[in-house]
Structures are given as C-alpha cells and as structure tokens.
Amino acid sequence: MKESDMIDHRRLGRDLELFASDPLAGAGLPIWLPAGAAARHAVEEYVRELERRNGYRHVYSPPLGRRELFERSGHLGYFADDMFPPMRLSADDEFLLRPALCPHHALVFAARGRSYRELPLRVAELGGMYRAERSGVLGGLSRVRAISLNDAHNFCALEQVGDEVREILRLIREAHAALGVRPAGFRLSLRGPGEKYVGDDAQWARAEELLRAALDGMDYTEAPGEAAFYGPKIDVQIVDAAGRESTLSTVQLDFDKPERFDLSYTDPSGARRRPVMVHRSLVGSMERLFAYLIEVHAGAFPAWYAPVQLVLLPVDDGQADAAYELARRAEAAGLRVEVDLAGSLGARIRDAARRRTPYAGVVGAREAADGSVSLRLRDGRGLDPMPVAAALGLIGAVVAARSPDLLPTDHAQLPTVVCRGSGSAV
Ligand SMILES: [Zn+2]
To answer: Going by C-beta distance under 8 Å and a sequence separation of 6 or more, which residues neighbour residue 361?
Structure first.
C-alpha cells in the first residue's frame, strides 16, 4: 500500500468517524459526523474570534437568491457553467443557489449610506455556497458541491488597498500557524487570454500592480489564466498527500462589483466615491481545509481542535464513579471528554491512541482514593499520577495556547510530570 493511501483523508475520515458520504444524499454532499463537527466547530470559533479581534463584522445571509441578484453580480454571465440550474417558483420568480457570497455582501455595504470613516468595512461570514461540480471530479471533502466558505469582503478606499492586502496576508499566516497548515507557496493569479473576464485593461493593470506591491519581498509564482473573472488574486497553495495542488487561502481585488451594485461612500469633501472590494478567505472552505488537516496531521489534530480531548479509563468498575466525576469537572472546564468502560484497559488505551485522542486519563484504585489521575499521551508517553486539578490545568494550558505539542512548554517545571519515553507514535 502506498503512503498516500495510508493518509488519504477519505480513509481516515471514515476510520475516525469524522464525516460520511452516502449515495442516497448525493455525491459531493458529505455529512459531518459528531467527531468531525466538533473539530470543525472549534476551528470555526477560532477563525471568528481571530476576525473579530481584527476589525471584522460578521453577518448571516441566505445561500440562495433571486436570479436578478446573480445577473447583477455578473455570475450568470461569467460563471453560469459552475452553477446549479435555476429553481422556478413562477414564470417571473426564479431562484439560484449562490456560487459565492459576494453578491449578498455587496448588499450589506449598500444597506445604508457609507462614510469614508467606516472604511475599510470588513464584512465576514462563514457561509454556504454551491458549485455544480461534475460527479467525476468529486472526492471526500476536497472537492464538494456544498461549500462552507470562510469568507469576507473588505470595502476600502483605493489608497487603503495596499495596507489592507498586507494585513490580510498577515492574518493568513497567523491562522495557518495555529492550524498547522504548511503552504506550498504563494501564487499571483493573473488574467489569461479569452473573453471570460470583466472590466477594462486599466482596472486589471492597477489591481495587478497593487497585488505585486503587497507581495514585495515574498517568494511567489505567477499563474496566467488563474484569475477570478472580476480581477487578479493572490492564492495560497497547498498540496495534498497524493501530490495534488489546490488553493486554500485567497485575496482578490475587484473593481467591477462595486460598479455593478453602484456602491459608494462619502469622502471627506462630501463627494461620492466608489470603494474597492477585496474578496478574501483566510483558511478557505471548511471542507477543503479539513481534507488537508486530516492528511497533514494523519488524523492526530492539535489538542485544541481534537474531537475528544480526554478519554477517561477507569481500571475497573470500582472506579467508574470517580471517572464520571472527573469527566464532569473536565466538561465544566470546557474540555471535550468521554468515559470508556468497555474492554480491557490495554485495549482501551490502544483504542484511544487509534482514535488519536490526545490524552487518556487512567483512574485506578489509588487514583480514585486520592483524587488523582495518570495521563497517557497518544504518542505513547505517560505521566506519573497527578492531582485532577493539575491534570485539567495541564490540558487546559495546551488547549488555550493552541499548541501543536501535548505538554505545556514549562512542563519540565511541574514536579509531578515525568516522561517515560515515547512509544507508538501515530
Ligand atoms: Zn467574494
């Protein structure tokens, strides 16, 4: 068996019960199971918090809209091949599943008059959108028809665009570091030959110049023909276990949609001016992100987004009550925790490692009597028994730091912690 088969996210997704696909539901329409949903929820909360702390305002908008909305946005003219056919309610009332969130976010900007003081206005949403991918190209989470995109549209004055793009690139790097994403490279995606692009040459040249300036000093490649239909973009590429390259994060400049939606703000002199729309995604869609994260971590997520962070293993039934009491305390401390009672202790420890659970807490008669627990890490290391509060503090510190390691950096100072070497690394 090839290495790429071993770490295929579809296999791991099935083994770890992260997501499922069912032909009855349809190809490219995966279902997130509780374990996958727990991990995704932790990542979504992190991304929302990161955005909130950096000046983004979150909105909710529906995943479908009237045909006229997508005529206005240009999607029907330039992107119809990738969209599902319209749903007709009556002769003059047709709806489309949206292929992008930009049209709705343009309407957020247009919801009232805007002043230059509000810019950049950063409208963010983790929202649903749909692409009519052919069934032959669909696979697991990496290529799907229902997409949950970490998206935002930053409306700026032209002179703010350079700083805004650089700031977005900084946030992309910060999110990648927390999640364990290791980009394969940055790419400047440019217009190619053909008629599939909107806007005039001057707009494209200006947008390209702004993106080049933001990339100054960085390593990047150029990809003619990979631009969006409305403008050039910076793409952050990833490579999956089978060596296939795709785009995860992106920053795109758009002069066209502000025209189409007649967006404007009032400048300091009271004149109406057109904003620039910057489309950006820090971590791409939840689907593509998790296809990548499952493979790059071989299912062993950092503790902060592991589906179950701590599994408690009473040595025998006599310690079950103590284990449930510890579980209650761990839950109250904000951890995702389970108690496993079925089978021999050795089999349960192996099962915890197989499921990539970061911490297993063994509760024997001695631990139950003195209120302690013995932590075993999924990489095979074990710690001497320590008071329950210390164990929960240790796990909580690793989770709060969003650390890729399973022990706090200062663990050497903890007198109760002794590492017994590493065993079966996963
Ligand atoms: Zn957009």
So the answer is: 310, 311, 312, 313, 323, 326, 373, 374, 375, 376, 391
